[in-house]
Design brief:
Removes the phosphate from trehalose 6-phosphate to produce free trehalose. The structure is a single chain. The chain is of the alpha/beta class. It is built from seven helices and 13 strands. It is globular. Bound molecules: the ligand O=P(O)(O)OC[C@H]1O[C@H](O[C@H]2O[C@H](CO)[C@@H](O)[C@H](O)[C@H]2O)[C@H](O)[C@@H](O)[C@@H]1O.
Amino acid sequence: MKEIIIFLDYDGTLSPIVTDPDKAYISDEMREVLKDVAVLFKTSIVSGRARAKVFDFVRIKEMNYAGSHGMDIKLASTTESTSTSEIDEDCGSYQPAQRHTAMISRVFDTLLHVTKDIKGAKIEHNIFCVSLHYRNCSEEDMPRVQKVVENILEELKDGVKLTNGKMVYEFRAPIVWNKGHAVQYIQGKLGVEDPFSIYIGDDQTDEDAFQVLRERKNGIGILVSEASRTTRAFFSLRDPSQVMEFLKMLVSWKRNC
Ligand SMILES: O=P(O)(O)OC[C@H]1O[C@H](O[C@H]2O[C@H](CO)[C@@H](O)[C@H](O)[C@H]2O)[C@H](O)[C@@H](O)[C@@H]1O
């Protein structure tokens, strides 16, 4: 029989989008629902954020966490690794972009420096990627923000990968690895014979995970969006409050199984 496993993006999925990325908290009610979900289903959070940061927001240790767009995976109930190897599967961790951390830190330092006079620009170090937030920048400053991005790409060329999120540019380690790869990796590690994955996410980077589930026919994507848009997801929910209601329904269905 198929076993449902759950993958959840964080920002815009569990927490509403807010102007300050450091204040993207989930509600107490959402945390209670997530605790139930984590007990009843194998559950993973897959986020663009640093893994430690997203764990600080969620604080449920029974879940798997994949930070840095899936480039920093830690499976639940495993001891913290002190290994420097990118693959330390005995400790339940997988960090395929480890050799790029110095470059990412250099991008972070450069961005901090070159954006210090751009009001509203915020730089977030996500370990294997760096976010340049422009949500709070003025229209007039946007050409400066774009110039900063162009300069970094010109300097590093193939040494860095750029993706776009919601009012954010994300500079990533240049490896072929995204949220879709992370989902496949975690699916493989859970030891579930016949998994059926439900992945819920709101952002462009979640499309990689939707695509993988569609291709492999072993799960579905659910897009969180108020507007209709092109997606590889099968279904959609409007916002984090609908995500919470959906998770509550899953919990009560499972309890009555
Ligand atoms: O894959 P995700 O977990 O969705 O990560 C994508 C980015 O999410 C965060 O930024 C977004 O949410 C912020 C808080 O609501 C918002 O202020 C920002 O405008 C959004 O882009 C996170 O802070 C970024 O580092 C991630 O790249």
